[in-house]
């Protein structure tokens, strides 16, 4: 008897096991099946095991998310999740919560106390089973296998191949990468046939202006408008129009044998990703395409904060995803929310308290290519830059002044802040003095005791008798040695912030077209020929394309690295690198085009430029060099500062070019190189000696240029009437010692009337050309002296011991 019962039980168990096995293999679960959230909660797998439905443990291990994920990839990327009744609540549920498949409400999620948190609900009919399909779709079906509810028709932030979004469908972003409550961004299929992306606010979910529109509506002929978004089985996404036409979102071809998904990321960028199915290869998600092209620039709704929070600045990274940074003088409101708002570290005010004027209390940070396009309250035109600054300074409400086609005043909170290369203007951001340290402690410099992680040049140079040989040696030095020292310093968002690069890659063909087959030659430099061209970057942009002809042959990786380094520099006194081409032997750099030529043409042309313009240019060069030396993440020693390498933009701002290039060139090809570089007259003496090369070589060259700017003559000039004073450096020092500054500047009455500035600049120039590198000031000190922030001590004789100047003769 007992054995009969035992046998029966055994058979029943076997049958049950078999049933379970069947259930397991076709991905189907009967009504009554349930999962409880705990450490070893089972999940319901699709028949081939690709997708799983169940509880995913969260970062905080006491919480779980009812979700669907890729079972076979290590990241177990989530593709769907159950939102609570109030989607702005965190959908993660606590340990002990349970999901059950019920006949009348489908999936029902309850908390450990048995209270209902969520249910699929909302359908007519009686559920008989739930199926985790191999497509990633969880389907509730009735006895006749009719579909009652599908996760595919209730998308969260991700779409999968075979999924379709109908008109009025919505895909919503999550709050952050790891927080699955409702985020600020939406992808919507509008009734008019357009697919759009927009941000919205809480709690009303009011939608702001769109920052992407597919353009598939058709007002004149509605039979042609879009009505479905289709992600087909092979991984192509397109909008199907009523007349059968397709408008593709997917660009190019999509690789086969990969997993595909399209996700509205928490930062508002809609991206199609792929991931290899094979366990070999690069096992990470890579993107096929993203919308919009540049979310930082494309978003400019009149309401809302933009991509980042209020007062923040959006910068696009190479993967087309945004990064948010608070400007100088501002800090994150919530330290844990990098994408959130920034608040000023000071109180914005204006009252002069009798003792101190507003000028004493506030100052501006000048930002390059940064704009907050939607926060204006006033515009003055015509208006000078100085007037613009002053007006904002004395205006209690003014937080930022933008000088571009007039003067725009902006108020707090600033919204839609972005880095925008095409901006073509200046931004002055107000801060309260004392609230922000004006100067960071100086960074350790190569050669100044502390050795940074760098190669210093200490090889001895035999001093030849021939000047030419020396120049060749100098050239060889510059070309073979690493002048780019990587410092492990923080990013310093000041002036021009060191934000990520956003370099564009060009094909050779594109650049050939852009330059009309390299027709319009702008100039020849030590590195090759520069051509004028135009590219499409939102609008048509004029560019200077530099064709490098002597690039290190095996420098494939080096080239990219150096280009990245150059691309990371953002400063208003540097020429801006926009992109590059690296195709076989063809290495090209694409810079913004600067309209007003080189400093050499400007200074030594037929008209003498105004004293004010010249001093501004000198200050600009100093700031640019200071940035290269101390303020960007990677230190760059220019090595070849000369007036031919300094360009002038529309506003006659100095822009240093050709920085960071020395490393790209090969030694054996350097001989002709040096002849062309024409550095004669700007090279510091340590090049000829057994001395390390440091940032001070640039300081020396700057000193020479400063003297040239003061006198409007070349440092070495044997041709035109300077026969008795062929060397500017010697002559300038003589005049300084003799107190005959008037001789130095000739009939320049403007300079004559500004004698104190003239004397200050001259002294700084002489300090910079000291033969002994350690006597030369740093560029930080130079800028402070030029601007009159610190006194300039009397300058000593630049060459007390040597006849160094003979090298030029
Ligand atoms: C699972 O997906 C496939 C492919 O889309 C489909 O043919 C099948 O009917 C689906 N199964 C269920 C139960 O929905
Ligand atoms: C997720 O975000 C929501 C909304 O901002 C917040 O209330 C919740 O506490 C967050 N959850 C976690 C785990 O940080
Ligand atoms: C609208 O588009 C359909 C399909 O392209 C075309 O057949 C029809 O003639 C169009 N109607 C008008 C009024 O243009
Ligand atoms: C998906 O669309 C692409 C592009 O139109 C097409 O080549 C492919 O055959 C389609 N795949 C399926 C399964 O229909
Ligand atoms: C794998 O792909 C990712 C994303 O495209 C990329 O960042 C990473 O460098 C790649 N890794 C390898 C080893 O190729
Ligand atoms: C005003 O000036 C006085 C004297 O120079 C100084 O001590 C004080 O800190 C200043 N106050 C402000 C608000 O700058
Ligand atoms: C400098 O640029 C401005 C603005 O583009 C232009 O009007 C002016 O003619 C330029 N000057 C020279 C010398 O090219
Ligand atoms: C400076 O003074 C000395 C002595 O009076 C004189 O020989 C020299 O020519 C002067 N130099 C200049 C540049 O005026």
UniProtKB/TrEMBL annotation:
The keyword Nuclease does not apply. Residues 516-790 form the Protein kinase domain. It comes from the Eukaryota. Pfam families: B_lectin, Pkinase, S_locus_glycop. ATP binds at residue 547. Its EC number is 2.7.11.1. It catalyses: L-threonyl-[protein] + ATP = O-phospho-L-threonyl-[protein] + ADP + H(+); L-seryl-[protein] + ATP = O-phospho-L-seryl-[protein] + ADP + H(+). The keyword ATP-binding applies. It is found in: Membrane. Residues 1-27 form the signal peptide. GO terms for biological process: recognition of pollen. It is a single-pass type I membrane protein. Keywords: ATP-binding, Disulfide bond, EGF-like domain, Glycoprotein, Kinase, Lectin, Membrane, Nucleotide-binding, Receptor, Serine/threonine-protein kinase, Signal, Transferase, Transmembrane, Transmembrane helix. One of its GO terms (molecular function) is protein serine kinase activity. Belongs to the protein kinase superfamily. Ser/Thr protein kinase family. This is Receptor-like serine/threonine-protein kinase. It comes from Salix brachista.
């Amino acid at each position: 008897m007992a054995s009969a019962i035992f046998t029966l039980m055994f058979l029943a168990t076997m049958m049950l096991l078999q049933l379970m096995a069947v259930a397991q293999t076709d991905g189907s679960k009967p009504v009554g099946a349930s999962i409880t959230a705990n450490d070893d909660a089972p999940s319901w797998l699709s028949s081939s095991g690709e997708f799983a439905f169940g509880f995913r443990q969260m970062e905080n291990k006491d919480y779980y998310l009812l979700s669907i994920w890729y079972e076979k990839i290590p990241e177990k990327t989530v593709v769907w999740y159950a939102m609570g009744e109030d989607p702005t609540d965190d959908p993660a549920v606590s340990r002990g919560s349970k999901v059950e498949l019920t006949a009348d409400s489908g999936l029902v999620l309850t908390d450990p106390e048995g209270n209902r948190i969520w249910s699929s609900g909302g359908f007519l009919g009686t559920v008989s089973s739930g199926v985790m399909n191999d497509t990633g779709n969880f389907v509730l079906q009735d006895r006749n296998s009719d579909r009652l509810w599908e996760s595919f028709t209730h998308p969260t932030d991700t779409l999968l191949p075979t999924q379709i979004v109908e008109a009025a469908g919505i895909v919503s972003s999550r709050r952050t990468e790891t927080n699955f409550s409702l985020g600020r961004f939406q992808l919507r299929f509008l009734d008019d046939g357009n697919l759009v992306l927009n941000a919205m606010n809480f709690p009303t979910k009011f939608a702001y202006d769109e920052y992407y529109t597919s353009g598939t509506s058709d007002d004149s002929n509605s039979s042609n408008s879009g009505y479905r978004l289709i992600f087909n089985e092979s991984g192509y996404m397109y909008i199907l129009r009523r007349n059968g036409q397709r408008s593709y979102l997917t660009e190019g071809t999509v690789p086969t044998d990969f997993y595909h998904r399209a996700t509205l990321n928490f930062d508002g960028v809609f991206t199609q990703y792929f991931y290899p199915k094979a366990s070999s290869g690069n096992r990470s998600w890579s993107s096929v395409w993203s919308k919009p092209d540049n979310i930082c620039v494309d978003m400019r709704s009149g309401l809302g904060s933009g991509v980042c929070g209020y007062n923040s600045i959006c910068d696009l990274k190479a993967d087309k995803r945004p990064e948010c940074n608070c400007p100088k003088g501002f800090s994150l409101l919530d330290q844990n929310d990098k994408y959130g708002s920034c608040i000023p570290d000071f109180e914005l005010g204006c009252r002069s308290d009798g003792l101190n004027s507003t000028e004493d209390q506030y100052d501006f940070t000048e930002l390059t290519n940064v704009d907050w396009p939607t926060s204006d309250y006033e515009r003055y035109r015509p208006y000078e830059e100085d007037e613009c600054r002053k007006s904002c300074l004395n205006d209690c409400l003014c937080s930022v002044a933008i000088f571009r086609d007039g003067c725009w005043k902006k108020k707090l909170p600033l919204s839609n802040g972005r880095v925008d290369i095409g901006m073509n203007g200046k931004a002055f951001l107000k801060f309260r003095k004392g609230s922000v340290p004006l100067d960071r402690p100086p960074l350790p410099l190569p050669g100044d005791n502390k050795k940074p992680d760098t190669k210093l040049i200490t090889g001895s140079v035999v001093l030849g008798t021939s000047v030419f040989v020396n120049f060749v040696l100098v050239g060889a030095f510059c070309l073979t040695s690493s002048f780019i020292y990587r410092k492990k310093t923080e990013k310093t968002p000041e002036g021009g912030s060191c934000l990520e690069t956003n370099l564009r890659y060009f094909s050779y063909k594109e650049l050939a077209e852009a330059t009309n087959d390299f027709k319009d030659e702008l100039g020849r430099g030590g590195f090759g020929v520069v051509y004028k061209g135009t590219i499409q970057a939102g609008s048509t942009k004029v560019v200077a394309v530099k064709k490098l002809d002597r690039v290190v042959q095996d420098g494939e990786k080096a080239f990219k690295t150096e280009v990245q380094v150059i691309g990371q520099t953002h400063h208003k006194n540097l020429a801006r690198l926009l992109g590059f081409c690296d195709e076989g032997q063809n290495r090209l750099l694409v810079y913004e085009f600067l309209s007003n030529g080189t400093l050499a043409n400007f200074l030594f042309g037929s008209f003498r430029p105004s004293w004010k313009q010249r001093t501004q240019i000198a200050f600009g060069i100093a700031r640019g060099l200071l940035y290269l030396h101390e303020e960007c993440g990677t230190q760059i020693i220019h090595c070849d500062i000369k007036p031919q390498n300094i360009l002038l933009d529309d506003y006659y701002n100095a822009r240093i070019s050709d920085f960071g290039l020395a490393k790209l060139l090969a030694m054996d090809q350097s001989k002709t190189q040096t002849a062309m570089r024409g550095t004669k007259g700007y090279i510091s003496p340590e090049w000829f000696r057994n001395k390390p090369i440091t940032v001070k070589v640039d300081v020396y060259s700057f000193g020479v240029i400063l003297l040239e700017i003061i006198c409007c003559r070349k440092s070495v000039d044997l041709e035109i009437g300077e026969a008795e004073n062929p060397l500017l450096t010697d002559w300038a020092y003589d005049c300084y010692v003799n107190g005959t500054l008037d001789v130095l500047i000739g009939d320049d009455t403007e300079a004559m009337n500004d004698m104190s500035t003239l004397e200050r600049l001259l002294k700084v120039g002489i300090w910079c050309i000291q033969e002994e590198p350690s006597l030369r000031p740093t560029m930080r000190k130079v800028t402070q002296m030029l601007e009159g922030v610190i006194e300039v001590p009397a300058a000593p004789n630049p060459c007390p011991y040597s006849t160094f100047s003979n090298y030029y003769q």
